[in-house]
């Protein structure tokens, strides 16, 4: 799918809706698929974001120059044309690109008028929020080309100008990242207890609000980790395990690729605490699991399961075979107890 196969008005509406934080989840998914289709689509989208930011900068000075914003877009797209000609890949500036630029500019003018002269500051840009509901996961590309898998019960948010002057996002839950390299703009992921900063790498970041531990596993590259107590560097096939209660951060060796197996519908537990395993199973199978004996909260398990091929009962049978626990199941409710 590319811009030629889509009605131009539809593409324009998606981009305008994105910049105004008014897209429906279905439209957001369609925009993401369009961005995934080609580098040309992503470059055009980035140009539109820059027009938006440039127009907001003008608004900071109260006087908005519509012609300046429009000329800025033309200058950027003409530069792209020259670059592609030099690479023997001719890129023609299409009429719908001019139209899309004017849609954005007109919307900004209307917004400024509606605000009755109030300053439109960059830090007032709306946050884009993406969620993956229980029982599913979401794959998407960020505006800078970074691939993200968002696991069930997770939420991610970032500003509309992501990729222009900074690449920062907030995460609740679990996500796998393949970060596009940009030595000038680091990629940052913020959670309540643990932050990650990278230039370009592949890593898995897990920090659900109801989990006892936060974990970062590095597959490729190098990442900088920071907590309230310390900072450290993580190297490939290392994991950082943060005890959220004590603040202790433990670095150890691991087969990091396993941490991203959930993107392939596998559930991989590497000496994970039972309460965290329970939460993962609840999110994956959309069920309710209760741990009836507090002594089980400190028990750890290792396991590797195929979510689509194995039922929740099969997984519980495997965990029970360790003789560390037993369970009863009734419909979508499971109770875990100590073995008799």
UniProtKB/TrEMBL annotation:
Gene3D superfamilies: 2.60.120.1440, 3.55.50.30
GO molecular function terms listed in the Swiss-Prot or TrEMBL record: sigma factor antagonist activity
Domain Protein FecR C-terminal residue range list: 266-336
Pfam families (alphabetical): FecR, FecR_C
Transmembrane spans: 96-114
Domain FecR protein: 129-223
Superkingdom, taxonomy of origin: Bacteria
InterPro entries reported for this sequence: FecR, FecR_C, Ferrdict_sens_TM
Entry keyword Cell membrane: no
Alphabetical keyword list: Membrane, Transmembrane, Transmembrane helix
Protein known as: DUF4974 domain-containing protein
Organism listed in the record: Bacteroides acidifaciens
